[in-house]
Amino acid sequence: MALRGTTAAGLGVLLSTASAFAGPPGRELRPGDQAPPFVLEDASGSRHALAGLKGLHVILLFGHRNVRRENQQWAEAFQARYGRTPSVRIFMIGDMRGVPVFVPRSLIKDRARATRPPVPLLLDWGQKVNTLFGVDPRRIDIFVVEPSGAIALRHRAEGFTDADFAALIARLDPVLSSADRSGFAAAATP
Question: pLDDT tens across 59-114, in order?
């Protein structure tokens, strides 16, 4: 178990370094805007294209190095609530632009696989997706993309609290009302 904690800490250091050099965000997307298309790889090398997820609700979690733990909490909470819903996909997007050139990408991918994030972690090596979505590198940005590809909801958080999650769920559940609710977790807000 200590090895897993060490691995998680190592990944945290690498992601911290990566996010430390994040540039200024692009134009802020708002509900109703079309989500920018992107294709990113996860730590296993699987490619994920937003266009390939049309017809599904997609929850995207962007976070900064100072809120790694909180971003993980958001991912765990979303996974617990919506993870069994067939029409919902959840992803964390890691800004990898600032990873030093001497750190092999394979090392970062190995560490990411070893930590077993609660949802797929997509690696944004050039900060392109973070810039396209106009995320604030100092906060957690959460986007919900409708099956049509439009932004349904955007939420910016300083961290994670049960109250903030409950407030977001109150806004999110109506958006997902067209989703297959039979898979929603029956448990109350974590």
Answer: 999 976 556 788 899 999 999 999 999 999 999 998 887 778 899 999 989 988 88
Q: Are 111 and 16 in contact (CB under 8 A)?
A: no
Q: Which of 53, 55, 42, 66 is nearest to 121 (CA)?
A: 42
Of 83, 80, 109, nearest to 96 (Cα)?
109
Six token digits for residue 180: 């297959």
On whether the CB atoms of residues 124 and 94 are closer than 8 A, the answer is yes
Compute the distance between CA of residue 66 and CA of residue 137 in angstroms, rounded to an integer: 9
Give me the residues paired with residue 145 across strands: 58, 151
Question: CB-hemisphere CA count at 13 Å for 101?
Answer: 0
What is the C-alpha separation between 145 and 151, in angstroms, rounded?
A: 5
Please answer whether residues 57 and 179 qualify as being in contact, where contact means their C-beta atoms are separated by less than 8 angstroms. yes
Q: Which two tokens stand for residue 58?
A: 């997609």
Q: Which helix (H) or strand (E) holds 77?
A: helix 68-82
Contact 57, 152 (CB under 8 A): yes
Tell me how far apart the alpha carbons of residues 116 and 4 are, in angstroms, rounded to a whole number.
10
User: What's this model's pTM, rounded to 2 decimal places?
Assistant: 0.79
Residue 34 gets which letter from DSSP? B
For CA atoms 131, 134, 138, 144, give the dihedral sign: negative
Q: In whole angstroms, how far apart are CA 64 and each of 23, 140, 178?
A: 12, 7, 31
